[in-house]
Amino acid sequence: MKRFLYQPVLNAIAAREQKIADELNDAAQTKAKAHQQQDEFEKKNQAFDEQRAALLRKATDEANAERSRLLADARKTAAQASSEQAKALIKETQRLHDDLVRLTQEQVYDISRRVLGDLASVSLEQRACEVFIQRLQGLDDTAREALSAALKAASPHSPALLRSAFELPVAQQSAIQAAIDESFGQTIALEFQILPELVSGVELSVKGLKVAWSIADYLEAISTTLQARLGTTEPV
């Protein structure tokens, strides 16, 4: 009876216990594996967080560097624009100043010629030549010696230049030629030229030296006086 009744029961119990033991062992292995996987996940998650933080720092640094570069470029561009605007303003101011001076000179020339003609019946051109000759004859010794050396070196191939704002009549050319020859003791080679910029004036030029008289001289003096009184500076 023991053989046919108890042994099968004992075998079933043993098998049951073995199955339970196997299941417990499998559960323990599964739990250990789960712990291992959790540890690996946590390590990977930590590594990912570190990489993300590093990438964020790098992106932030690059963004700040680019921002600084763009700001620097913007400031440089603004400074250049301001500088160009300032230069343009100075240039325009100078142009307006030059135009004003030129127009004033032309008006003074025209008025002076009409006044002289009405009051003395003497053309402004003739009077300008007379004043120029007086200035030539009134040179101090130092200026006369320097001009004399330069004039005596003049030749038909390299003459001294006698410029005027107007075409000198033959009589006035002869008067100036005679005054120069007499002042320096010999015949000086002269070439007569027209230079409207003189604004009713006469200029003797040779070897970089000049003797001149023109209305512009007086206008320049007037301009300087006015600027001093107004506390302004001449455009550059």
Structure characterization notes:
The protein is of the alpha+beta class and 236 residues long. Mean pLDDT is 76; it is low at 230-236. It has helices at residues 2-120, 124-137, 141-152, 170-184, 215-230; strands spanning 160-164, 190-194, 201-206, 209-214. The protein is built from 5 helices and 4 strands; from the N terminus they run H-H-H-E-H-E-E-E-H. It starts with a helix and ends in a 6-residue tail after the last helix. It has a domain at 123-230.
List keywords for this structure.
alpha+beta, 5 helices, 4 strands, 75% helix, rod-shaped
Structure described in brief:
With 236 residues, the protein is an alpha+beta fold. It contains five helices and four strands.
Q: Strand portion, in percent? A: 5-15%
Would you identify the regions where 5 or more consecutive residues have pLDDT less than 50? 230-236
Q: Report, as a whole number of angstroms, the end-to-end distance.
A: 135 Å
Percent helix among the residues? over 70%
Secondary structure: number of strands: 4
Class from helix and strand fractions? alpha+beta
Rg over CA atoms? 53 Å
Count of helical regions? 5
Characterize the quaternary organization of these chains.
Answer: single chain
Please state how the strands of the largest beta sheet are arranged side by side: 2-1-3-4
